[in-house]
Amino acid sequence: MSGPRQTSADGACDPAALPHAAIHDRLGIRIVSASPRRCVGTMPVEGNTQPAGLLHGGASCVLAESLGSIAATLYAAPDRVALGVDLNATHHRPVSSGTVTGVATPVHLGRTTATYEIAISDEEGRRVCTARLTCYLRPAEGARREDSGVR
């Protein structure tokens, strides 16, 4: 993901200005708000379940990685690109219907890495999954290494 136009001093971006991600269409993910310090998105449970009828853990991981990657990309822009290098998730409780909401907030914002915690909750506000995503921040195409601080 590259190139979202930031529209405010805090790096926030109009979600409609984010690059298209086909997987968001397939899973019904909707980005509600996006900035380097907080990225919020929703996903329906229906259509994203395992055979037992519960929200699939992999779908939660896609939501988590999407939100963390968007926030990291906004943090890294314009001279660096965020690439996910580690994702882990703990699934706390099952969900069988409704919509889940994910909120990504930074744990670490550095020169070469950014780490986000993503809390996913059900419609009653109960946490169903906690994920952590670390992104490597590499120089963007055309950026000079000595200017980026990456050696």
UniProtKB/TrEMBL annotation:
Thioesterase domain ranges (all copies): 53-129
InterPro entries associated with the record = HotDog_dom_sf, PAAI_dom, Thioestr_dom
Keywords, A to Z, come to: Hydrolase
Please list the GO terms describing molecular function.
1,4-dihydroxy-2-naphthoyl-CoA thioesterase activity
Q: What GO CC terms are in its UniProt record?
A: cytosol
Q: Give the record's family classification.
A: Belongs to the thioesterase PaaI family.
Q: What is this protein called?
A: Uncharacterized protein (TIGR00369 family)
Provide the species name: Thermasporomyces composti
